[in-house]
From TrEMBL:
<dbReference type="InterPro" id="IPR041569">
    <property type="entry name" value="AAA_lid_3"/>
</dbReference>
<dbReference type="InterPro" id="IPR051701">
    <property type="entry name" value="Mito_OM_Translocase_MSP1"/>
</dbReference>
<dbReference type="Pfam" id="PF17862">
    <property type="entry name" value="AAA_lid_3"/>
</dbReference>
<protein>
    <recommendedName>
        <fullName>AAA ATPase AAA+ lid domain-containing protein</fullName>
    </recommendedName>
</protein>
<keyword id="KW-0547">Nucleotide-binding</keyword>
<dbReference type="GO" id="GO:0016887">
    <property type="term" value="F:ATP hydrolysis activity"/>
</dbReference>
<dbReference type="GO" id="GO:0005524">
    <property type="term" value="F:ATP binding"/>
</dbReference>
<dbReference type="InterPro" id="IPR027417">
    <property type="entry name" value="P-loop_NTPase"/>
</dbReference>
<dbReference type="InterPro" id="IPR003960">
    <property type="entry name" value="ATPase_AAA_CS"/>
</dbReference>
<feature type="domain" description="AAA ATPase AAA+ lid">
    <location>
        <begin position="57"/>
        <end position="93"/>
    </location>
</feature>
<dbReference type="GO" id="GO:0005741">
    <property type="term" value="C:mitochondrial outer membrane"/>
</dbReference>
<keyword id="KW-0067">ATP-binding</keyword>
């Protein structure tokens, strides 16, 4: 065990009003980080989509404008959710053309 070890706790929330008072007493230093501006949202999109297959002419600035009011976490979740749409479309298309084995019921 290290004699002079220090522990730092860093927490983040999108809903500070829902935090318990006991937690707030134990985390005395609090500061607000505002919502990302358009340029920052575009950068968040670029970082989130880095390494993913995207169209080469993707307009991150346009997407960032559409995401006004979104946090970085919101943008990340949006990208994750949108990634499943092509899979859903393929499955729906497959269901249209493949008869259900229980179609006699």
């Amino acid at each position: 065990m290290v004699a002079n070890a220090r522990v730092m706790v860093l927490a983040a929330t999108n809903r500070p009003s829902e935090l318990d008072e006991a937690i707030m007493r134990r985390l005395p230093q609090a500061f607000e980080i505002g919502m990302p501006e358009r340029k920052e949202r575009a950068e968040i999109l670029k970082v989130t989509l880095k390494g993913e297959r995207v169209e080469p002419d993707i307009d991150y600035d346009h997407l960032a404008r559409l995401c006004e009011g979104y946090t970085g976490s919101d943008i990340f979740e949006l990208c994750k959710k949108e990634a499943y749409f092509p899979i859903r479309e393929i499955l729906e298309e497959e269901r249209k053309w493949r008869p259900c084995p229980l179609s006699f019921i």
